[in-house]
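hey can u run this one w/ zinc ion bound, need the structure tokens asap thx
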Amino acid sequence: MRLWVLLFIVSFVTACSHTRPAGQSVSTPSQSQRQNLSAEVFIQAGHEGRSKGKLGARSVYGREINWTPIVADAATHYLRRAGISVIRANANWKPKTRTQLALFIHFDGIAGDPCRTGASIGYDDASDRPAAQAWKRLYSQYFHYRWRKDNFTKNLSQYYMFKRTHTRDAELVLELGAIGCPQQALWLRPRLQKIGQLVAYFAANRLGYYNRVPKPQM
Ligand SMILES: [Zn+2]
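ok here u go:
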């Protein structure tokens, strides 16, 4: 009889010690959630998903909020087809992520003379610069219009998503051109998907996956 009591106590204590860690795990992300928050590449379409606040630049040629998802979707398509994992986010993304590379897609707009602006790159520290320079070299082979210097506005160097993306290689705001400048906008508009492919080509190469994404013809 005493043995049964002892066994009961032992099994009760064992059960308690097993349930406690399981209970604690509720407050931390499950393994599947953690896996969702890490990927090789993070791609955000700037302004996408917003109905108020910063809705992006617009002109007679188009709206930034409509153009950024086209580029981001094409980039995601080419990367995933190449077996590279992607978190595809809109402007309202909240969780913190861990990736090799984070790319935030934008087009620039400016009042007055819209051709005063063009393509540019934003980042928050010098560790991002090699990737920024590589993107500028690559995109310049296609985009033959104006470039502004890196981080020429505060919004570029202090982009809100930098706080949520933890990257091994770089986190870059890619301003892909001036949406209000006729020459740039008319070059950009029919090439948004190709530019997305170029973003994918760039990302794959940064990760060391050469030849997985074909370099686009534009
Ligand atoms: Zn923007």
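Residues 37-206 form a domain with the Aminopeptidase fold (CATH 3.40.630.40). anyway lmk if its weird
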